[in-house]
From TrEMBL:
UniProt source species: Caldithrix abyssi
Membrane topology: Multi-pass membrane protein
CDD domains, sorted: EcfT (cd16914)
Ranges annotated as spanning the membrane: 12-29, 63-80, 86-103, 110-129, 135-156, 177-195
Name the record gives this protein: Cobalt ECF transporter T component CbiQ
InterPro entries: ABC/ECF_trnsptr_transmembrane, ECF_transporter_component
Length: 241
């Protein structure tokens, strides 16, 4: 049994997901209702994906902490008007506006990540790169997508290793020990991830990878694909006009 998202043409899904991501990026931070609507749309897409909620929850738990670590400096950003000081301890200052911006950034990242996760889990890799070729996108764009997909795979692998090491070494210790160990392992995790990503990139470039990918799976365009594409194009026109 094929679910709705699995029957759509990759090009139609690509247009709709890109429109949804641009909408999330362009939406103002105060547009809470719009974020709620986008989340409801993504929840409906997850329901009709045929993969189950568990796989999305597991992959979010594995990968999203990396985004959280990279955006932590937003908490300590000094605003132009420093009158909204929220917390001060020695040289550490946290402002209310910085916390608000951090929460807004996390919400946007989560919605964008879910949109990309929905797309990648319902699209065979062969159909995806075949769609990129049909859309006449340049080879460098396909190369970037390929590297991003490989980077997400590395994140999952390194996170599983980090979690297994943490459980085996520090199970049953005090909270203070667990906190210090979590910080040390997180730093090691990030350094290993950066090093493995660099080695993977150099290996791919040394083999002459230019973005091309053998696309063996194709899909047929239907009226449903046309309707989904029209919705995506309408969203794009509504954003930029």
């Amino acid at each position: 049994m094929k679910y709705f998202l699995q029957t759509l043409d990759v090009r139609a899904k690509f247009i709709f997901i890109i429109a949804l991501i641009i909408l999330i990026i362009q939406a103002p931070a105060s547009a809470g209702i719009l974020y709620a609507i986008v989340f409801a749309v993504e929840a409906a897409l997850i329901f009709f994906s045929g993969n189950g909620i568990r796989i999305y929850f597991r992959r979010t738990v594995q990968i999203y902490p990396m985004f959280l670590l990279f955006t932590l400096p937003l908490l300590f950003r000094s605003p132009a008007d420093a009158s909204d000081l929220l917390f001060h301890w020695q040289f550490i200052r946290v402002y209310f506006s910085a916390v608000s911006g951090f929460i807004s950034a996390q919400l946007r990242l989560l919605l964008i990540y879910l949109a990309l996760l929905i797309f990648t889990t319902t699209t065979p890799i062969g159909q995806f790169f075949d769609a990129l070729q049909r859309l006449r996108l340049p080879a460098w764009f396909s190369a970037i997508i390929r590297l991003m997909l490989h980077f997400l795979k590395l994140i999952r692998i390194e996170f599983n290793r980090m979690y297994s090491a943490f459980r085996s070494r520090y199970s049953g210790h005090k909270k203070s020990v667990l906190f210090k160990a979590a910080i040390n392992i997180s730093v090691t995790y990030m350094l290993r991830l950066i090093m493995r990503s660099e080695r993977s990139y150099m290996a791919m470039m040394s083999r002459g990878f230019n973005g091309s990918f053998p696309a063996r799976q194709t899909s047929q365009w239907t009226r449903t694909d046309t309707a989904v594409s029209i919705v995506g194009i309408t969203l794009l026109l509504g954003i930029f006009l």
